[in-house]
Design brief:
Order of helices and strands: EHEEEHEHEHHEHEEHEHEHEHHEHEHHH
Strand content: 15-25%
Number of helices: 15
Distance between the termini: 15 Å
Number of strands: 14
Strand order of the largest sheet: 3-4-2-1-5-6-7-8
Helix content: 40-55%
Length: 379
């Protein structure tokens, strides 16, 4: 029996990127052999062979980003070409960002080996949210997105809203949707503590995720909700800014920074939380962003306070989350007071509704979609 082989490319650490990790696991479950070019140490795990790009991934300037991308791209060209020439590739699976990495598979294109591009975020909107508005960079990001969609044989993206945006910019692109939702088997439920007043956030520590609005809301309600505090789990470029903000508002003692924790420890790190907070800033990036954090909290049974964005609301209706409008510390504060006064059973009812909404889009559903795409391109 012939074994299918996939080349998986991602400028990330496999053990830290749940979407890429789940893709690799789906391929292995299908009986494929997988070669992965990532940032993890080179190693062999059964049918998975990992090749490390010898470079670090650091948060820094735009120039640093471009340098990392260039080194990774050049390495990927040689890595893919050698394996395609040796006949060790039935599918090349390229993860963005950036979409331009797909061009590293030029040898596969010439040999008619199927190329799948998995777009995790819309890069023009992502960089605008980081403060790079207008100019040559956004134009270049939009161009490489269009060219990449036309170059790939199939494109997978993470939800309907982003797919609609990509279609609007590249009409006729062949798109499939495999949502970036957690595998609930990896997230054991936590026992929600109704008496706790700990707000928890996991992920990149950045202003675009509205963490400054949450801190301002805590300053507003600290006398009404005496035990309230915010726990940050993750790392990012805006930690110092948020700590300074908390100090200036007199709530430095209400801010707990845990740092990055292994994936297996995410659940225990939130076991005593009251609410998960997903307070995205308004704008294009927020509207096309689906928070994997919200899905994880729904899976664990943790109530969620979330900005009402187009994408989140599309999958989690009104009575599943505690919604607020973006960019409004006052509205966050008002919602915190409302939840503080609610009957715990009413809060549990909402978390149960969120769990039911998640079940309709959970990873087993998405894994089946992914398998269908892989089987189709490998015929």
């Amino acid at each position: 029996m012939t074994v299918s082989r996939a080349l998986v490319l991602s400028h990330s650490f496999l053990d830290r990127d749940p979407r890429v990790r789940r893709t690799v696991e789906a391929l292995l479950d299908m009986g494929w052999e997988v070669d992965a070019l990532v940032l993890d140490d080179s190693q062999r795990r059964g049918a998975l062979r990992i090749t490390q790009v010898p470079m670090s991934r650091e948060r820094g300037s735009l120039l640093r980003h471009l340098l990392e991308y260039a080194v990774f791209f050049i390495t990927a060209v040689g890595w893919i070409t050698w394996r395609v020439i040796r006949g060790r590739a039935d599918v090349v699976y390229v993860n963005s960002p950036p979409e331009a990495f797909v061009f590293a598979a030029i040898a596969a294109k010439l040999r008619r080996t199927p190329i799948i591009l998995d777009i995790h975020d819309a890069m023009p909107e992502l960089f605008e949210a980081r403060g790079h508005t207008g100019g040559w960079l956004i134009t270049l990001l939009a161009m490489q997105e269009r060219w990449a969609l036309r170059f790939a044989d199939r494109v997978i993206t993470v939800h309907d809203t982003l797919a609609e945006l990509l279609w609007s910019r590249t009409p006729g692109a062949r798109l499939d949707i495999v949502m970036n939702v957690p595998d609930t088997a990896d997230l054991p439920p936590i026992e929600w503590d109704a008496s706790s007043r700990i707000l928890v956030y996991t992920g990149s520590i950045a202003r675009r995720y509205g963490l400054d609005d949450v801190i301002r809301a805590i300053a507003e309600v600290r006398d009404d909700i005496p035990g309230i505090r915010l726990r940050l789990i993750g790392e990012g470029e805006d930690l110092a800014y948020l700590e300074d903000l908390a100090m200036s508002l007199g709530v430095a003692d209400r801010l707990d920074y845990v740092g990055k924790v292994p994936h297996r420890d995410i659940g225990p790190a939130q076991a005593d939380a009251w609410l998960g907070v997903n307070a995205l800033k308004g704008g294009g990036f927020a509207d096309i962003g689906f928070s994997n954090k919200v899905a994880e909290w729904a899976a664990m049974g943790l109530p969620v306070l979330s900005t009402r964005t187009k994408t989140v609301f599309r999958y989690f209706p009104e009575e599943t989350l505690f919604y607020v409008e973006p960019d409004s510390p006052a509205e966050i504060a008002a919602m915190l007071r409302t939840i503080d006064a609610m009957d715990p059973n009413a809060i549990r009812s909402r978390t149960e509704a969120a769990a039911r909404a998640l079940a309709e889009i959970a990873w087993p559903v998405q894994a089946e979609r992914l398998r269908s795409v892989l089987e189709e391109v490998n015929r």
